[in-house]
Amino acid sequence: MRLSELFARTLREDPAEAEAASHKLLLRAAFMRPLMAGVSTTLPLGVRTMRKIEQIIREEMDATGAQEIRMPIVLPSEPWKLTGRWQAYGETMFKLVDRHGRELGLGPTQEEVVTPLVASEFTSYRDLPVNLYQIGWKYRDEFRPRFGLLRGREFLMKDAYSFDRDEEGMRVSYDAMMEAYKRIFDRCGLGYVIVEADPGTIGGGVNHEFMAIADVGEDLHVSCPNGDYLADAEAAMPRPPEPVEADALQPLTEVHTPSAASIEAVSALLGRSGSDMLKCMLFDAGGKTVAVLIAGDREVNETKLARRFFPTPVRRFEDADFAARGLVKGFVGPQGLADDVAILADHSAAGGKDWVTGANRVDHHVTGANAGRDFRIDEYADLVEIREGDPCPVCGEPLRIERSIVVGHIYQLGTKYSEPLQATFVDEDGDAKPFLMGCYGIGISRIVAAVVEQHHDDDGIVWPKAVAPYHVAVIVANRDDERAVVEAERIYGELAGRGVEVVLDDREESAGVKFADADLVGYPVQVVVGKRGIEAGAVDLKLRATGARSEARSAETVQAAVDLLAVAP
């Protein structure tokens, strides 16, 4: 490819709308252009890199026996309503109505498409296992799209779905995908960790995220310094405190707390620490009132709570809810709550006694509140937001919180979709049984950004050669020197003839602009043909990853470039 013909115009300055390094560099290096918030046009350089990632994925997926299909983007609502996800996705799913009044959605994922498909085609246990995958665009109406390809409304994804006859087969399929994902991300040059994760609106049981380490990452994971524990922050569970001895309990005493409707105000008024307080947080779960008890110095992880009630939607109480249900905002306590209120407690509530909590009337709290004697707890669950320094659930060492980018997520779904969609096969005993499923996603466009986040410097992108758009850039430093032009053309032609992915920078630009663009775009190897080199019978070479420069005799330039490419990371 001659750069004089390439549809790409690099930018000298960082675009004002770009915050993350990957967003800035992918715009400046002409890999993409924004259309609107969360939606971009991919330019030729970007398409080449995405296709290389796609090819790596296809090779590794095909090696496991998975088969590629193509599923539609526009989806009927009916299967989604059967699984409960039409409601659970809410405003995150793009929804529309066709001219006949039928509700449709743009696919954020495809379980409701592939499950009926397999059930209609494979009806016997003899047909199993099977794993189908596709590479296609997905759509989610992100509230705040940002960071370019890291959080968009439209994104390129590989999604795969395995179908097995039993749990053992499901685990075997899951393990095969786990290993394939490791190979994929290794080949893409990503540094990553594999963590226990929150299944989100996909649901299911066992699931793991592949998280690329990056300072700009919006996804958090926790790690133990001893290496005993890795988990997504939304799924991480600190070691529960030791239960306290329920003896010598203080009496339940009501105290006047005028205008003290917050933990901080009550703490200051009574001279008690936040950890002595018992928050009683109220939520609506499909019309049912749910009270969540948690130590006053902690916060409820609403994702964990939503998972507990999935697919029933859960939302925090609003002002109108308190009034409608006869409760006093800022002064609610668990004692005396109606029998139809579900009372859940985080494990942290088991580590204290003689709590300070709301008295269920304005400007009053109680001290000496104790579970069992003064209020009931229907269920203990992990409902707390993790924080730096929480004890590791395995060894007790302080946990660290680190930033990362989710580039892959795999799930053991079990019968979560096959049962509501009545997707069954006939086992050898003649009985109809639901498929045991797994699903496996990789964010291809997100990988592009994650690689740039991990592989860049002050001058631009430093692509690993496996995903670089082109491998070698031949730069004509002096367009006004005919000998340099002829020599560059020769090198370019011979490299192309040997199958090297090469570009020729034949633009009418200064040498400085060409050098800067070569570093910005991130070609792994640069070959510079200039007037002084021609006079000396030599050319200059540069390895982008290290900046190391070398020289080769003109007759040996092509082989020198091939050899340098071979050692490029």
What's the helix and strand layout?
Blueprint: H1 21-28, E1 32-36, E2 39-42, H2 44-63, E3 67-68, E4 74-76, H3 78-83, H4 85-89, E5 95-97, E6 103-106, H5 111-121, E7 130-139, E8 154-164, H6 167-187, E9 192-196, E10 207-213, E11 219-223, E12 230-232, E13 253-256, H7 263-270, E14 278-285, E15 288-295, H8 302-309, E16 314-316, H9 319-324, E17 342-346, E18 355-358, E19 364-369, E20 379-381, E21 400-414, E22 424-426, E23 432-434, E24 436-443, H10 444-454, E25 456-457, E26 460-461, E27 472-476, H11 482-497, E28 502-505, H12 511-521, E29 525-529, H13 531-536, E30 538-543, E31 549-553, H14 557-567
Parallel strand pairs: 3-7, 15-17, 17-20, 27-28, 27-29
Antiparallel strand pairs: 1-2, 4-6, 5-6, 7-8, 8-24, 9-10, 10-21, 11-12, 11-21, 13-19, 14-15, 14-16, 18-19, 21-24, 22-23, 25-26, 29-30, 30-31
Helix pairs in contact: 1-10, 2-6, 2-10
Core attributes:
569 residues; 5-stranded mixed beta sheet; alpha+beta; Rossmann fold; 9-stranded mixed beta sheet; BirA Bifunctional Protein, domain 2; YbaK protein; 3 domains
How would you characterize this protein structure?
The structure is a single chain. The protein is α+β, with helices and mostly antiparallel strands and 569 residues long. It folds into three domains: 252 residues, Bira Bifunctional Protein, Domain 2 (BirA Bifunctional Protein, domain 2, 2-Layer Sandwich); 129 residues, YbaK/aminoacyl-tRNA synthetase-associated domain (YbaK protein, Alpha-Beta Complex); 107 residues, Anticodon-binding domain (Rossmann fold), CATH 3.40.50.800. Helix content is 26%, strand content 28%. It is built from 14 helices and 31 strands. Helix 11 links the parallel strand 27 and strand 28. It starts with 20 loop residues before the first helix and ends with a helix.
